[in-house]
Write a structure and sequence with these properties.
Blueprint: E1 23-27, E2 40-44, H1 45-54, H2 57-63, H3 67-72, H4 74-83
Antiparallel strand pairs: 1-2
């Protein structure tokens, strides 16, 4: 019997990303800000949505172009603490943009 490889880990929240869980690629530098063809990371869809609900593309390109910088953002750090306690397949609606609040 062949053992299935371990699923990749979400670099934002640290939870596994099984193949049957909603996921997406995040361009560390947004495509519209010069990141087309640049580095990407595989994230849970909910983690990716939270990034874009929190930060503008300009902010992402200028100050948050690494996973470490994203994890250090106060609002994203709070989200990570919350979502890390949920199962890998957890889904929730992410409200619209909250920038500037």
């Amino acid at each position: 019997m062949t053992q299935e490889p371990d699923p990749p880990l979400c670099p934002l929240c640290g939870r596994p990303i099984p193949a049957d869980v909603a996921q997406s690629l995040h361009h560390l530098v947004p495509k519209l800000r010069g990141g087309k063809g640049g580095p990407t990371v595989l994230l849970h869809a909910i983690c990716h949505a939270e990034i874009h609900a929190t930060l503008s593309e300009t902010e992402l390109a200028r100050d948050y172009a690494t996973v470490e910088a994203l994890r250090a953002h106060p609002r994203l750090a709070k989200f990570i603490d919350w979502v890390a306690k949920r199962p890998p397949g957890f889904r929730s609606r992410v409200p619209g943009p909250r920038r500037g609040r």
